[in-house]
Each structure stands twice: as C-alpha cells, then as structure tokens.
Amino acid sequence: MVQEYGEMNPVSLNQLMLQEMTKESVQAGAALTQQPTTRKLADGKELTGITAEVKTRTDTAYFEIVGYGRADQGLLFITRVAGEDAATEKPLIDKFWQSLKLKM
Predict the structure, then answer these.
(1) How sure is the predictor about 27, in pLDDT bands with cuts at 50, 70 and 90?
(2) pTM of the shown model
(3) How far apart are CA 98 and CA 81, in angstroms?
(4) Are 73 and 9 in contact (CB under 8 A)?
C-alpha cells in the first residue's frame, strides 16, 4: 500500500499504522516483535520505518512500514506478507524497492 500526504510529513505515523494493522491479531494473543529499519532507494533517498513480525499459533505475517517526507508532504509505504507466501512475495517486493525512484 502506498499513501501520499500533501499536508504533513507522514514518517511519524509509522508506529500508529503498525498498531492499527496488527491490533486485532495482538488482541487475540499474537506475539508482535518489531525493529527499526531503513530502505535506500535507487535514487539515493532513504526511507525510515519499522519491520514487524506478528506470530500466532498457526501462522506468521511480516510487515514493513517506511516513509519519506518533507515538512508538508510525503509518502508512506506499507507491505504485509503472509508467512506461507514469503518465498514468492519477498523477491517481488525487493525488486520494487531496488527500482523505486521518488520525485518530490
């Protein structure tokens, strides 16, 4: 998911977005682990954010929420990969990051 913001820098929303996307799983007993991350794009820009793993008894989901912003605009990128799909989806997501260039 890509969200564009025209009135604010969305980088500060990373934690809030993760909380909203994982709230139901965590309330149902899933274990949430997270850590800071950065993504360097093909054009040299660096996005900051968090990666997280939500693990239930039966499955795992991986989240990455990163953003890029200026004083009054920016972009937020959110990916979610289910554990059983990681082998096929993660290479596609990596290809996306390797080729992404932002014009802001």
Answers:
(1) very high
(2) 0.86
(3) 18
(4) yes
